[in-house]
Write a structure and sequence with these properties.
- This protein has 234 residues and is α/β, with parallel strands linked by helices.
- It has one domain: TIM Barrel.
- It has nine helices and twelve strands.
- Strands 1-2-7-8-9-10-11-12 form an eight-stranded parallel barrel, surrounded by six helices. It has a two-stranded antiparallel ribbon with strand order 4-5.
- Strand 8, helix 5 and strand 9 form a beta-alpha-beta unit.
- The radius of gyration is 17 Å and the shape is globular.
Amino acid sequence: MPLLPFANRERPVLLGHRGVPKLADGNTRASFMAAVEAGLDGIETDVQRTKDGVLVIHHDFVVGLRMISDLTFGELRELRPEILTLEELLELLEPYPDFLINLEIKSIPGMEDGRAYEAADAVTGWSGRNRVWISSYDPVALLKVRERQPDIPLGYLFRVYDTSRMADLLGIEAVHPEYRLLKPELLNRWHRKALGVATWTVNDVETARSLISMGVDVIMGDDADALLAAKGVK
């Protein structure tokens, strides 16, 4: 099984959710650099694909009332001049060899357009590939990444109710539950299966401290100061 990038790190690993959106617009150069400068362990961010096959960093499927998948990259950049490509993100973070990256493939099941294969290839072709893992709500996207590049660690995202059995079916390395789903018995069950547990989106110190005491591996949040304070770094 591929080794998760945080496997040998001091727990919990702290990730900026789309950078540090408390300080700058999420999923932008400024937000990602704020995460680096704050001393977080890494970031979580979102990968989508334009009509002409450019992988871009953006959360919502829709920009300007149009699907990103229906826009060319030129059209998208006119609407969002600050948008980064995946290539630009990796270049931005190249100088920080200890900085981790969790890429979430934004994918609608049944509407796969090549983004899973292309994201897998981009990660594998990057010099920092050993500090990246890929997650998604879409099990088909995860299966395609595993098919294309078996050495990339994978995480399965879910919210509202526990669908972690999907991780068993997919044979992947981590589960990414929304933090309100977490209970000690669930966490212990996942750890007994050797699954990493990464949770989101945690924005207050007390909640983060509770999750730390529970034994969560990765905490993602918008507020770097809150996460670091909960860990006792600040």
